[in-house]
Amino acid sequence: MPENLVVVHVHVHVKPEAVDAFRRATLANAEQSLLEPGVVRFDVIQDAEDPTRFVLVEVFRDTAAGLAHKEMPHYATWRDAVAGLMAEPRAAKKYISVFPDHAEW
Predict the structure, then answer these.
(1) Shortest CA distance to 33 belongs to which of 76, 92, 80, 94?
(2) What's the pLDDT tens digit per position in 88-97?
(3) Which residues pair with 46 in a beta bridge?
(4) Does the reported pTM lie above 0.85?
(5) Domains, the chain
(6) Integer angstrom CA distances of residue 24 from 1, 5, 27, 43, 101
């Protein structure tokens, strides 16, 4: 495993009437993503005060694993399913892990 994992936070604002559909599609994608060898974590977090806002916390073993994730059929299914559900385009920010040590993930 590399010294630092790649952590991606994807911020999504969903249309109010689409929250349930977004959750279903996103949970299906998350479950399939966890089966990928390069995915360490795939968390789906919903804002407690504004249920139309989500953060996907994706942790990959390396950059190549993150790129491979976007080539998976389940990712394409999710991307297409949620495109019309979002109130605005999703935004992603990449980080590298600092703590805990990568062996503890």
Answers:
(1) 76
(2) 999 999 999 9
(3) 54
(4) yes
(5) 6-54+69-99 (3.30.70.100)
(6) 32, 27, 5, 14, 32
